[in-house]
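Example for tutorial group B:
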C-alpha cells in the first residue's frame, strides 16, 4: 500500500468495508464499471447543494456531479417542488399515453436547439445515440458509422470501440485502427465502425471519401470528453465534407448540452448537425435522453404509413419494416419532463453565473500550478474543464492527451479527496448553480494546501 492510499484509507474505512460487501453482490462491487476505482470507490450517503457526504461523514465539494448531470447541484428545491406538483396535479407517475408536457418540453428544446426540428424522448444518453445510429441507417440506407478515437457515446457494442485504446495498438494517428473496448463485442460491430482522428480535417476527409458509400453518419462529441474542443476550422470543415459526401453529421451533446451554454456546443460553433442527442443535465439527476434532427430524417420513425411490429391488423398500411420502430415504456416520463422544465427555468436565470465561476476556478488553479512550477492546462469550454498536466502547448485529441502526466494528476486527486474535493480520480470538473464563491474559495485553498504542503 503506498502513502497515498494510506491517507485515503484512513479517512474512508466504512467505504472500504461496504465495497468489500458489495463485491459479494455485484461484479466488482459496482453497477456501472465507470464508478469503480482503486483501491475502492468512496460510498456516498447524502447530497445537498454542492456537497456530498460519504458513509464516514466526510464532506466533499462535488465536482463530478454524477458525470455532469447535476447542473443545479444536489436536491435543488425547485426540482423537488416540480416533482411534488407533477404528482399532485397529474395524480399518476405515468400515463402510458401522449401527454401535453412532451410537446411543451419539445418546443422549449427546439428554441435552444433549432436544428432539432423534430424530437423523440429516450431514457438515457445511450439510448439516444443508439437511436441516432438507427435513424441514420434508415434514412441513408447505408450501414456503417464513423466515430472519433477517444469519443464516448454510451455502453453498447457499436460505440465501445476506440474510446480509450492503447496507442501502441491503435495504428497511425492519421488512420486510427478500430480497437474493441469490451468483451462480448461481435467482430461485425468492429467492421461497421470506422475510426477518425479528432481535429485532423485532412485525414478525416481521406477516410470519409474512401468509405463514402458505406458510412451513414459521422458521430462525434463536439467537445471531446466534454473538455477538448473541436477547433473551429475543423468543425466547419467536417460539416462541409459530410454534407458534400451525403453523410449525416450527428452531434452527441449528451455531455455538452446545456453545459457549453444552454444551446450546447452547436450554438457556440454555429453549426447545424443533422441529428443531435441530449441527456444528463436536462434530467436534473433523473434518467432521460432526447434525440432530434432534421424533419425529413426524424420522420422515418413516424407511424403514419406503416403498421408497427405489434400491430396485428392489416389496416391498409404497409408493413412494419417501412418505418423505424422506436418505443419505450418510460419515454417522455411526465415526472422527469417536469424536472427538465424546472432545470431550464433555473438555467435561464443562472447560467451566466455558472460560466463565470467556472472561469474563475480554472484561472485560480492555473495560477497555483504555475507558481508551483508544474506545466499544466485547465482545458474546457462552458461549465466543464479538466486538469491536464503536460508540457504540450496544445492538446488537440486523444493521442495528445495520452502524453500527459496521469500519475501526478492521480496523486493530486487523492490528496484533494482527503481535503474534501470530490471528483473521481482523473475525471473532469463540472460546476453547478450551487457552486458559489464560498465553494470556489475553499477549493482553491485546498489546491494550495495540496500543491505547496503535501507534495
Ligand atoms: C457524450 C456521451 N454520450 C452518451 C453517453 C451515455 O449516456 P448515458 O450514460 O445516459 O447512457 C454519455 C455518458 O457519459 C456521454 O458522455
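The residue assignment follows.
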Amino acid at each position: 500500500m503506498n502513502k497515498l492510499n494510506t491517507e485515503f484509507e484512513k479517512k474512508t474505512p466504512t467505504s472500504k468495508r461496504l465495497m468489500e460487501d458489495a463485491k459479494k453482490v455485484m461484479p466488482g462491487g459496482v453497477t456501472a464499471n465507470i464508478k469503480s476505482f482503486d483501491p475502492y470507490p468512496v460510498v456516498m450517503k447524502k447530497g445537498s447543494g454542492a456537497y456530498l457526504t460519504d458513509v464516514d461523514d466526510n464532506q466533499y465539494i462535488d465536482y463530478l456531479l454524477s458525470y455532469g448531470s447535476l447542473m443545479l447541484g444536489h436536491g435543488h428545491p425547485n426540482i423537488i417542488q416540480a416533482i411534488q406538483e407533477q404528482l399532485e396535479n397529474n395524480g399518476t407517475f405515468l400515463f402510458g399515453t401522449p401527454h401535453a408536457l412532451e410537446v411543451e418540453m419539445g418546443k422549449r428544446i427546439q428554441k435552444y436547439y433549432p436544428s432539432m426540428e423534430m424530437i423523440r424522448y429516450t431514457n438515457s444518453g445511450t439510448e439516444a445515440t443508439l437511436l441516432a445510429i438507427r435513424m441514420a441507417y434508415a434514412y441513408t440506407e447505408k450501414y456503417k458509422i464513423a466515430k472519433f478515437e477517444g469519443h464516448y457515446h454510451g455502453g453498447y457494442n457499436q460505440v465501445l470501440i476506440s474510446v480509450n485504446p492503447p496507442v501502441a495498438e491503435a495504428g497511425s494517428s492519421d488512420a486510427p485502427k478500430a480497437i474493441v473496448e469490451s468483451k462480448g463485442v461481435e467482430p461485425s460491430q468492429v467492421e461497421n465502425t470506422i475510426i477518425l482522428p479528432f481535429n485532423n480535417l485532412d485525414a478525416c476527409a481521406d477516410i470519409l471519401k474512401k468509405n463514402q458509400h458505406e458510412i451513414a453518419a459521422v458521430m462525434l462529441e463536439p467537445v471531446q470528453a466534454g473538455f477538448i474542443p473541436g477547433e473551429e476550422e475543423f468543425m466547419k470543415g467536417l460539416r462541409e465534407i459530410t454534407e458534400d459526401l451525403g453523410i449525416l453529421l450527428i452531434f452527441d451533446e449528451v455531455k455538452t448540452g446545456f453545459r457549453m451554454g444552454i444551446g450546447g456546443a452547436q450554438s457556440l460553433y454555429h453549426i447545424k448537425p443533422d441529428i443531435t442527442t441530449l441527456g444528463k443535465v436536462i434530467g436534473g439527476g433523473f434518467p432521460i435522453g432526447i434525440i432530434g434532427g432534421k424533419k425529413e430524417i426524424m420522420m422515418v420513425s413516424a407511424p403514419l404509413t406503416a403498421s408497427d411490429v405489434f400491430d396485428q391488423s392489416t389496416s391498409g398500411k404497409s408493413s412494419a419494416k417501412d418505418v423505424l420502430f422506436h418505443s419505450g415504456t418510460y419515454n417522455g416520463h411526465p415526472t422527469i419532463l417536469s424536472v427538465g422544465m424546472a432545470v431550464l427555468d433555473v438555467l435561464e436565470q443562472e447560467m451566466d453565473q455558472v460560466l463565470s465561476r467556472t472561469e474563475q476556478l480554472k484561472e485560480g488553479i492555473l495560477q497555483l500550478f504555475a507558481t508551483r512550477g508544474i506545466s499544466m492546462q485547465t482545458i474546457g469550454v462552458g461549465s466543464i474543464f479538466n486538469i491536464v498536466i503536460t508540457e504540450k502547448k496544445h492538446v488537440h485529441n486523444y493521442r495528445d492527451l495520452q502524453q500527459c502526466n496521469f500519475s501526478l494528476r492521480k496523486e493530486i486527486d487523492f490528496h484533494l479527496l482527503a481535503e474534501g474535493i470530490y471528483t473521481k480520480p482523473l475525471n473532469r470538473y463540472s460546476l453547478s448553480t450551487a457552486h458559489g464563491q464560498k465553494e470556489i474559495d475553499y477549493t482553491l485553498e485546498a489546491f494550495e494546501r495540496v500543491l505547496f504542503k503535501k507534495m
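Residues 334-372 form the longest helix (39 residues). Compare this with the pattern of hydrophobic and polar residues in the output above.
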